[in-house]
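Researcher: Next sequence.
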Amino acid sequence: MDLPDALAAALSAGATDAQAAELLEQAHAYVRALEERLRAAESGRNGSNGAAVAVDAPPLPPGLPASPTRPRTGSQDRPRRPSEGGGTAPGSRRRVVLKIGTASLVNEHGLKIGQVATILDVVAELKRADLDVLLVCSGAVGTGSQVLSIRERPTSRPKIRALAAVGQARLIRELNHVLAAVGVESAQILLSFANLGEYEQSLNAQNTINELFAMNVVPIVNENDTTALEHARFGDNDRLAAMVATVIDADFLFLLTDVNGVFTADPRRDPTATRIELITNVDEVRAKIRTDTGAGTSFSTGGMDSKLVAAQIATRAGVRTVVMRAADVRGIPDYLARQLAVVDAAAAQAGAGAALVVAAAPFGTVFVEQRRKQHARKKWLQTLPPKGKILVDEGAARAMRTRKTLFAAGVRAIVGKFAAGDPVHVCAERAPDVVLAVGFPNYNHSELARIAGKRSTEIPAILGAQHVANASELGAVVDRENLAWATARS
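Model: Next structure:
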């Protein structure tokens, strides 16, 4: 039994969070003592012309179980993943993103140490399986409230930002200590929507994370609440997790929550609701859940809807997504091992044209990814929240499948207000809730409303020549290089 197992066992045996916290503090002291000895050994090596110096581990505190040191995973010369292409070649390193929700991290008494330790022990197990792992963690505001004994969440944005600053420091400290206890190094990354919403900054984030993976480090990502503008926030870390998974070209995204996946109805209200094991079309399921549960319910507009949005973003970029209970996290390594073995076997037999192999998990809901080769910029484009919609006729929708350029003649209506260059969704007029594509338009909303349905030759007379200079072709509303196909039906 190792440290996380000991913590989890203590809680399940009836130990209080305070007792578990005391055990964790003993682990902190042990890690600090070990670091002191390592620093002393480093000084001794420098004084002996670089010769190796033996380091004896300090004695374990009485509350901690003795266990053999776990081997560190891999090395910096392990095979690297391809940066582009439709999937990961067999034998290369897969990438896994785990998003931990606030409810899975903290409660009214503070950090849920037993559950956190179990999750981080699974992270260590995935690292030993030669997977790159990234954590996206919520809970900074909740942790800050606990530290400062604030019982009710404030409504003032500056106070919320301040609590997030306090909580983030405490949260990352606790996560680092537990990861160190299981032999894993970690790094903190704070991101705002302004970072990932701008392509060059998203590349900087991608390159930093790639280097951390090469160093065998687990990045821990959270939103930078201190600097985030109210109108330019992720809103929830489910979207942040999906955007990060897209940027780093992850293979799997696990959204850990307190609900065991997506159900046919709200399980809190309908006892006949059943879990949906596999979803291939997120748009249809999201529309049905909204219709069945009605606007304003916590099920449709709260946590579950944000997870469906995250699944839309991730699966469009080729990332398989699983919504599951944090309590079932121990099942992730076995699911990944079985699924990756099947995928590799199929790919080895059929080559690059192997059929997509997807299996339901014994927990949660699996969202099937779209298997398409895409340029990194178009994957990034699909992660951006839209400022509006462009509704098109059937002819334009069919033409976009082949030409990938949207012309004014096919535009039927405009929804929302947006500037030229803002991200927008392109939807069929008959199905306005199903996203066909995401793109950067050459015109703002008012200009598009004036030229909707018009032939290309009519546009200069309507808008003036100075308003059509941004388009690569006369009448092009969204150019092909600024358009990313979003629907699975191609």
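Model: The longest helix spans residues 17-47. The mean pLDDT is 77.
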